[in-house]
Amino acid sequence: MSRQDTWKSETIAIALGRGEHLAGAPLNVPIIPASNFRLGGKRRYTRDDGQPGWEALEEIAGALEGGHAVSFASGMAAVTAVFESSAWEAVVLPAHCYAGVRALARERQSNGRCKAVYVDTSDASAVFEACSRGALLWLESPSNPLLEVADLPQLIAGAHARGAKVAVDNTFATPLIQKPLSMGADYVVHSATKYLSGHSDVMLGILVVGDEQLLHQARLHRVHTGSIPGALEAYLAVRGIRTLPLRFAKAQANAAILAQRLRKHAAVERTRYPEFGAIISFDVRAGAQAADDACAAIALIVHATSLGGLETSMERRGNLPGEEHLPPGLIRLSVGCEDVDDLWNDLQQALDVAAERRG
Ligand SMILES: *Cc1c(COP(=O)(O)O)cnc(C)c1O
Question: Which of 225, 212, 265, 203 is nearest to 73 (CA)?
Answer without folding.
Answer: 203
